[in-house]
Amino acid sequence: MKNPKRIRKYLFISLLSLITILIFLETGFVIWNTTDPSKTCASCHEIRSSYENWAVSAHRETDCKTCHGTALSSGMHGLNEKIGRVRRHMRGDTAADIRIDEKQVAKMVDLCADCHQNEFSKWLTGGHSMHFTDVFLNEEQNKKEPANEQCLRCHGMFYEGSMASLVSPLDTTGPWKIISSPHKSRYAIPCLACHSIHTPGQSRISPDYAKPGRKAYHQPPPYPKAGFYDYNKKAHSRADSLPKLQAWQKGILISDEPLMRICLQCHTPEAKHQGEPGNDHTPVGVHEGLSCVACHQPHTNNAMKSCKNCHPAISNCGLDVEKMNTSYANPESPFDIHKVSCTDCHPGFVRKQNKPE
After folding, report:
1. Which residue, 9, 156, 224, 254, is the most exposed by fewest CB within 10 angstroms?
2. Please, which residues have CB within 8 angstroms of residue 302's CB and are 6 or more apart in sequence?
């Protein structure tokens, strides 16, 4: 018969060894997740560029694990993913740029909302908080045109599959359904469609209080806080790096305000100028040259009461602009607020030009 004392001794040593290993692993895990990222995650050259962007971004005071989690926070899926990445690295199969997948992008909406609750609540009331079901189960649109890959450029930038694996059938007769179950409750235009987490932020600089009248002139121009994620290029561009906009019709003045460049990535006809007329919201007529954000609030897209920004009293013709027969007061009005002109209400009107003295 085996010696009971020896068995207990072996069990005690085994248990002690196990506890020591667990303490060692837990200590290493804590140290890894609290150490400067430049000495841990960012020591990997594939991640270095993202770290350098984060280090000068508005989120530079937020540690990596707040958004990315840890190797264990995503369960076995996250652990397997990171182990697989190490295995590929050892084989020499390295990626030049590591991107988060669509599932992670969807999760980021909740993470963004944790800190940006006010912006998130406003976004929920706007048109950009639509789900895939709101877009691709719209009978009115589907009867006009079958869903296709180009729809994803504005209504599903991060979608990783084909349209055939998302919507069925791809025709104008229907009835239509969303094939992929996760996408029935997933947002089609998530936060990252317009916001890049690693976008460079701006340093806070106090003005010269001895010369308060010159405060505005000494402040550096603000960085745009938004951009556009290109579905085809799989890359995010800050607003001021997007190409300047030009109209097909010569002589049309378009605002060079950077945020408007984002709006017109989607709210314009397609490249062949064959989009639905309602797609084009470029201001012309009496509002030519105005930026979208001159009237539309960020996140909510609400333009109500925006007329007062420029028309505190009445219009040049002595009428209250908020009560005129335009789409501002009545969505069914034939006079689109983006295109309304003086001659729409005043046929034969000729604007008098000021003559020089």
Report:
1. 9
2. 125, 126, 296
Per the listing, tokens 């789900």 go with: 131
Q: Which two tokens stand for residue 58?
A: 């508005």
DSSP string, 166-206: TEE--SSS---EE-SGGGGSSBSS-GGGT--TT-B------
Residue-range domain boundaries for the chain: 8-98, 105-193
Count of CB atoms within 10 A of residue 236's CB?
20
201-217 pLDDT, tens digit each? 776 667 777 776 666 66
For 317, other C-beta atoms within 10 Å of its C-beta total: 11
Q: Region 39-54: what's the mean pLDDT?
A: 75
Higher local confidence (pLDDT), 105 or 317:
105
H or E stretch covering 228: strand 227-230
For 121-136, how does the pLDDT look when each residue is reduced to its tens digit (9 = 90+)? 999 999 999 999 999 9
For residue 218, CA distances in Å to 221, 222, 257, 349 come to 9, 12, 20, 44
**Cβ–Cβ < 8 Å for 296, 302:** yes
